[in-house]
Design a protein that fits this description.
The protein is mainly β. It has one domain. Helices cover 14% and strands 37% of the residues. The chain contains five helices and 14 strands. A seven-stranded antiparallel β-sheet has the order 8-12-13-7-6-3-14. A hairpin with a 5-residue loop joins strand 12 and strand 13. The protein is globular, with a radius of gyration of 17 Å. The protein starts with a helix and ends with a strand.
């Protein structure tokens, strides 16, 4: 959970244990290799101000069409108190060689693609810009409000539920099935690198990472702090007028869905 901080995550992994509900608990097997090992993966050093989802952050014209039922059921906030501005930052591109997107707690990305349910992007293959929509509070707190994966430049005509995921580490992650499989196939040291990257990219009350795990395809894992920490988060797939996937949005239940289009001061 975010309030526990990266220090607790690091202490638990050294055990090795996992943070669950604010305490260290036994961790499930991380592939066939175990959790802690030495070799680092290539990683992105800086945010990407040139991401398409920074310059064009709205995938669906101000929240129209309406969000799927999963977003509504999660408790779409009507009037979030204390939010003074929305900022959009780029985390770089997510490489999707075969159009299978995995969304889960970051520290479970590595258990093998057969253990994690993937979102089928209906034949999309290529690179997709990934952005965080950040809610700035008057107290100087900052929270991830949305994670936006832009698959195309076309606006969304219809949103559909694409599942959801639970978080016990205060950190979510997205990856292709290839990126996850590359960890299981013999590469080691990822969890410790997760902690190092999150520490290096820690910004007030959120953090991020972008780590390449598969040299053959360039497939990578992108991690991010989740809203106010642990909990369940809905995922929506947006389709264009032709029915093709155009965007994936993870709602962190921090600001209203209609604020997908909002950037700058909140008045």
């Amino acid at each position: 959970m975010r309030s526990a901080g990266i220090g607790m995550l690091r202490a638990c992994v050294a055990a090795p244990l996992l943070v669950v509900a604010g305490a260290c608990s036994p961790v499930p097997p991380f592939g066939a290799q175990g959790l802690v090992a030495p070799a680092p993966f290539p990683s992105r050093a800086d945010l990407d101000p040139a991401s398409a989802c920074v310059s064009r952050p709205d995938p669906a014209n101000g929240g129209d069409p309406a969000p799927p039922d999963g977003v509504v059921a999660a408790g779409d906030p009507a009037d979030p108190a204390g939010v003074v501005a929305i900022e959009v930052v780029g985390l770089g591109e997510l490489v999707l060689p075969s159009g299978q997107l995995v969304v889960d707690d970051l520290f479970f990305l590595g258990g093998g693609p057969n253990d994690l349910e993937a979102i089928d992007l209906d034949g999309f293959a290529g690179n997709a810009d990934v952005c965080l929509h950040l809610a700035h509070y008057a107290t100087a707190d900052e929270r991830v409000a949305f994670v936006h994966v832009r698959l195309s430049d076309k606006p969304v005509a219809t949103w559909v539920e694409a599942g959801g995921f639970g978080v016990d580490s205060g950190t979510g992650g997205i990856a292709s099935t290839e990126a996850v499989a590359a960890v299981v196939s013999g590469e080691e040291g990822l969890v410790e690198q997760y902690l190092d990257e999150l520490d290096r990219h820690d910004v007030n009350t959120w953090s991020w990472l972008n780590v390449e795990t598969d040299a053959a395809t360039g497939a990578n894992i992108i991690g991010f702090s989740t809203g106010f920490g642990d909990g369940g988060y809905p995922v929506a797939l947006g389709r264009d007028v032709d029915g093709r996937p155009a965007s994936v949005v993870i709602d962190h239940v921090v600001v209203p869905w209609a604020w997908l289009s909002r950037v700058g001061p909140v008045t």
